[in-house]
Write a structure and sequence with these properties.
Elements: H1 2-20, E1 22-26, E2 29-33, E3 40-43, H2 45-53, E4 60-64, H3 74-80, E5 85-87, H4 93-98, E6 103-108, E7 111-112, H5 120-123, E8 129-132, H6 148-161, H7 165-184, E9 192-197, E10 205-207, H8 212-219, E11 222-224, E12 233-235, H9 238-244, E13 248-253, H10 259-268, H11 276-279, E14 283-287, H12 288-291, H13 297-309
Length: 311
């Protein structure tokens, strides 16, 4: 009888351990978490906001990669006021290990570089597990073009990892309903030709087929003129932009060069004088945190739609 009881207890214990394990797909890796992370670090402003909107600040020991390029708005400052910024730009292995982190939420070119110092493989010996931003997976594997579903997938996977799946589901369902209601009431015409101007004067850094603005622009009734550019965020030539003649230019606002300065550069340059967007002064600004995958993507679509089709 005693042997049976011990065996039953062992089975129950194993079942409990198995139930605690969570497996998610992170780019081309299947990652299993034995328990929800307790000392998480996020990189970049949009990924950090995903953590905050899920109510995970109390599971974090800090964040990285924001003040070196971007600024926190009031809402974000309030969300991270108890947390330190551990690195102004990309963190080193030593920074992450020194914080005794057990989880790093980052992406390729969002805190990690292919072949760089910080990758899922280089952090594994420190006991730091990594979940990769879905939009960024194009840097290491093939994937479909950018979609708002990429952002939803990240929120749902974070929900599973941190054992708050109900909270994540409620959040994503709310975003879906909000976007559906907006799209149903949106009156559009022929899709507008749209160029995303991130930065650069000699050559523009822009959003290609696999970057989130492509999905945002389509949801708002436009088409990214670089939709066939088989990249995420990358550099093109001004000749390509002129040839494709955008009707609207979306400026991504961050860093030392302001959105107004970027607009002035395009408006004052004779090379762009014949662009429809320049002739009609049709510019719209998205903050970096709106243009990259994160909770503000729904409002970004509304901002774009108003600029495309509003009076």
């Amino acid at each position: 009888m005693k042997t049976v009881l011990l065996a039953s207890a062992a089975v129950a214990c194993l079942a409990s351990v198995a139930a605690a394990e969570t497996t998610v797909q992170s780019c081309d890796r299947t990652v299993t978490f034995d328990a929800p992370p307790e000392r998480a670090i996020s990189n970049d402003v949009n990924l950090t906001e995903m953590m905050l909107v899920l109510g995970l600040a109390d599971r974090m020991v800090g964040y990285t990669g924001i003040s070196g390029w971007k600024t926190l708005d009031e809402e974000m400052r309030a969300g991270v006021e108890e947390l330190p910024e551990l690195s102004e730009k990309y963190p080193s292995k030593e920074v992450l290990a020194g914080a005794d982190a057990d989880f790093f939420f980052a992406g390729w070119n969002y805190g990690m570089r292919v072949g760089g110092e910080v990758t899922p493989e280089t952090l594994e010996p420190f006991g730091i597990q990594v979940y990769e931003l879905t939009e960024s997976c194009i840097h290491i594997m093939e994937k479909d073009k950018a979609s708002i579903e990429d952002m939803y997938a990240d929120l749902m996977n974070l929900g599973r990892i941190f054992d708050i799946e109900d909270r994540a589901t409620e959040l994503v369902d709310g975003y879906r309903a909000e976007l559906a209601a907006f799209s149903d009431g949106l009156e559009t015409g022929e899709p507008l030709r749209v160029f995303v101007y991130d930065s650069g004067e000699d050559a523009p850094f822009t959003a290609g087929r696999y970057a989130m603005p492509t999905a945002l622009i389509e949801a708002a009734g436009g088409v990214n003129i670089m939709d066939d550019f088989e990249k995420s965020w990358a550099t093109v030539t001004w000749e390509e932009v002129v040839e494709r003649n955008p009707e609207v230019i979306v400026i991504v606002n961050y860093g030392e060069v302001t959105a107004e300065q970027k607009r002035d550069f395009m408006m004052s340059n004779p090379a762009f004088a014949d662009l429809d967007a320049v002739k009609n002064d049709r510019f719209v600004t998205l903050e970096y945190v709106e243009a990259t995958p994160g909770p503000r993507n729904i409002n970004a679509i509304k901002t774009l739609a108003d600029a495309f089709w509003g009076e």
